[in-house]
Amino acid sequence: MKINKPKLNLSIDILMFMLMIPIAGIGFLIKYVLVPGFKRNDIYGRDVELYYWGIDRHQWGTIHLILSFVLLFLLVLHIVFHWKQIIGIFKKMVPAKALRVILGSLLVLFTFVFGIVPFFLNPEDDESVLNHAHNSKHGKGYSFEERQYKNKVEAKPDIGQDQEKIPDVEHHTELKHAHQSDIEIYGNMTINEVAEKYNVSAHELAKSINVPTANNNKRLGRLRKQYNFQLNDIRDYIESKNMKE
Fold it and tell me: Which residues of the chain have pLDDT under 50?
């Protein structure tokens, strides 16, 4: 059976267009709707879990990645089917052979660096996580947006400083038995940091969310993807410990 190339090319182009729309849409969804933890706290007053169609931002990110792979495959097919046409136009645009070789080499290098190398890279996060408390004071270990939000929060006046000077047992009890919405936990925090902040056992906290204690210095955002827990599970544990005291 003879392949009708014009129809095949048109079908590939239509599929590529149909993939580009949801890829862009999911990107906008993750960026502006299913925002990260530090933005959720600013918008909703606490770090709530956000879903769209029952799927959180990390799962949408996985869908985004899968669609990107499919689009990349179709793009390769598109280039293969139009290879002779591409070469012909390229030769007319760049008559000098030496310049074509240079531009072609740069294109191959660009593809290698940004398309292949990322699969073999190891993230450099051990130092920033282990020294997270030190880095927090110097604005390190955070993204630009996280630093902006952190500076915004720190700029707010601490209303409770004067109140802390007055011995108030009832007020202390209310703080001790804080509601879940008052327990601030972010994806860039570690289990050890949460345990230290709320005076609970890091070992027991890790056990409550089924995370090996060897991972206590890894960020919760990464652990949440691997061990399938929610930040609200940690809040529930902390609240239950506070209620027992």
Answer: 126-141, 158-178
